Amino acid sequence: LILLAGCVRFQPQPLLPADTAAKWEARTLGDPDLREFLEKNLQRRFDNWPPQSWDFPTLNLVALYYHPSLDVARAQWRVALGGHQTAAARPNPTVGIVPGYDISASGGLSPWFPAVTFDLPMETAGKRGYRLAQARHLSESARLNIAAMAWQVRSGLRSSLIDFTAARQRETLLQKQKSIQEKIIRSLEQRAEAGAVARSELALVRIALDKIRLDLAESQQQAAEARVRVAEALGISVQALEGVDLAHDFSARGPTAAGLLSNEVRRQALQNRPDILSALA
Q1: Predicted confidence band of residue 150 (pLDDT cuts 50, 70, 90)
Q2: How far apart are CA 216 and CA 206, in angstroms?
């Protein structure tokens, strides 16, 4: 009874695509658990939730909260930790029953009898210690892979957010240019009716307006595609970004090229990048 009580029953947890899709579509920026996560990591409270404007630091935390690649990396780390527990286990002794034969059995008695064998495995040459060390390094590699994946998520979000902000700013400038060009055309039409300018000049200005409209449509398409990439980088559906103001601050000055090429930066990269540390582990 004691041995049976120590047995562990496997609990299957099948993956259902319909449930996974429903959970993914239910992700929103107004989730109360997301609010608690952001307030804890940003160390500030949100008076209005969800906020209408989202900057890059806040969106980066949203990506860390929702992105599925980080869930995969965490699951791989938990599997590696389970391997560490398995490596620490000692081989179990075994008891077996095999048929035995007595060559000296007297007449009338069966020479066959049951024999019990007891095997006690003993590991030598430090095999268990090496196995533990290997499992420890593999779990550390999986842990560092979470940090490497987080940087990949951050990089993808930053790139898509820059593309979206640039496309929106270009769209705004083209809208203003289109409005100015339309005013110029109306003015030239009035002057052409009065005979002050030739119709050929008006045709050239209209061609320029058509070119602006084509550029504007292209910019709007680029903004829509970049918005989809932002949603993908966040790990949510694009419908969850409806009515949300996304912007990247281009005024923040980044590091200079000379600073990025310094020996200190190279040393820090070679010694502290999580993907390199994970590969070494």
Answers
A1: very high
A2: 15
Note the Cα 79 to chain centre separation in Å. 18
In whole angstroms, what is the distance from residue 34 CA to residue 97 CA?
Answer: 59
This prediction has a pTM of 0.74
Report yes or no: 201 and 188 within 8 Å, Cβ to Cβ. yes
Distance CA(73)–CA(79), nearest Å, equals 10
For helices 199-234 and 56-66, give the axis angle rounded to 10 degrees. 50
How far apart are the C-alpha atoms of 72 and 83, rounded to whole Å? 17
Q: Is 115 helix (H, G, I), strand (E, B) or coil?
A: strand
Q: What is the 3-state secondary structure (H, E, C) of 233-252?
A: HHCCCHHHHCCCEECCCCCC
Query: Is the CB of residue 202 less than 8 Å from the CB of residue 189?
Result: yes
Residue 6 has pLDDT above 70, yes or no: no
Structural contact between residues 227 and 164, judged by C-beta atoms closer than 8 angstroms: yes
Q: How far apart are CA 174 and CA 51, in angstroms?
A: 28
pLDDT of 166 > 70? The answer is yes
Q: List phi, psi (to 5°) of 96.
A: -135, 155
pLDDT digit string (tens) for 231-266? 999 999 888 888 888 877 766 677 777 777 888 888
Query: How far apart are alpha carbons 34 and 37 in whole angstroms?
Result: 5
| pLDDT at site 62 | 92
- Between 70 and 99, the more confident residue is 70
